[in-house]
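Researcher: I'd like a candidate sequence for this fold, 143 residues long. If you have to choose between options at a position, lean toward the conservative one.
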């Protein structure tokens, strides 16, 4: 189990969490952390079985936003870094792409979570997400 004293939303959107018949909305804090994306060189994809040739597919790369600082890093034997952002007793809601970029680099921010926008998300008639039922954590260290 993890316990946090407060929650800060570092996305540009209100996040509504529905759980056990209750709902909570966490408004944006005004500070947004993002994964900075940039494109690599285009390349060609050929799927022979389908007779498909796609041109102009672009590799997408990501990096943490410049100036993002994590603290209390603890490197494990596998080169993985477990660390905290800001205040360790605060849960920071961030975007899933940011967490993916950090995880791909071996950095797991223990107080980051992203809205679970998968098939369990609550959607309106237009298919837009209006609430989530849970948050996603990208680390295995549970205290």
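Model: Candidate sequence:
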């Amino acid at each position: 189990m993890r316990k946090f004293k407060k929650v800060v939303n570092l996305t540009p959107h209100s996040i509504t969490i529905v759980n056990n018949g209750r709902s909570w909305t966490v408004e944006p804090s005004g500070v947004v952390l993002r994964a900075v994306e940039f494109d690599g060189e285009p390349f060609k994809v050929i799927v022979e079985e389908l007779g498909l040739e796609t041109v102009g597919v672009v590799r997408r790369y990501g990096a943490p936003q410049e100036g993002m600082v994590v603290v209390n890093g603890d490197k494990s034997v596998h080169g993985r870094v477990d660390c905290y952002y800001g205040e360790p007793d605060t849960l920071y809601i961030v975007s899933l792409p940011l967490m993916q970029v950090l995880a791909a680099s071996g950095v797991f921010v223990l107080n980051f979570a992203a809205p679970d926008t998968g098939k369990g998300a609550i959607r309106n008639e237009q298919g837009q997400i209006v609430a989530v039922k849970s948050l996603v954590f990208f680390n295995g260290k549970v205290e």
